[in-house]
UniProtKB/TrEMBL annotation:
Species in which this protein is naturally found: Yanshouia hominis
Full protein name: Histidine triad nucleotide-binding protein
CDD domains: PKCI_related
Superkingdom as given in the UniProt entry: Bacteria
Pfam families reported in the protein's UniProt record: DcpS_C
Sequence motif Histidine triad motif, location on chain: 96-100
Coiled coil (residue ranges): none
Span of the signal peptide: none
Domain HIT span(s) in chain numbering: 4-112
């Protein structure tokens, strides 16, 4: 298995699931940066935001719908942040498109 998140999406690597449907999986980050920190991924491999095309972009809209649903379920009404890193200089450490959903504390700006 070459991709960590493909392994998680395929059930080969365990995770603490927050949400799952046919297209998307959300799970708790193993190194959380906030009291609530989930990672939301498309199950189909897309390497990064740089690889989003007209053919695969619908999953990104669906991911944001899922993020809104998770925020409702987890009662994140005080606010949350959604982050995606792209490429080495952008801080991407896993080569699979993913979105961090962070909440539960004041998330200052600039982020780092």
């Amino acid at each position: 298995m070459d991709c960590l998140f493909c392994g998680i999406a395929g059930g080969e690597i365990p995770s603490t699931k927050v949400y799952e449907d046919e297209q998307v999986l959300a799970f708790r980050d193993i190194d959380p940066k906030a009291p609530f920190h989930a990672v939301v991924i498309p199950k189909r491999h897309i390497g990064s935001a740089a690889e989003i095309t007209p053919e695969n972009s619908a999953v990104v809209a669906h991911i944001y719908e899922v993020i809104a649903e998770i925020a409702r379920r987890e009662k994140l009404e005080k606010g949350f942040r959604v982050v995606t890193n792209c490429g080495e200089e952008g801080g991407q450490t896993v080569g699979h498109l993913h979105f961090h959903l962070l909440a539960g504390r004041n998330l200052g700006w600039p982020p780092g």
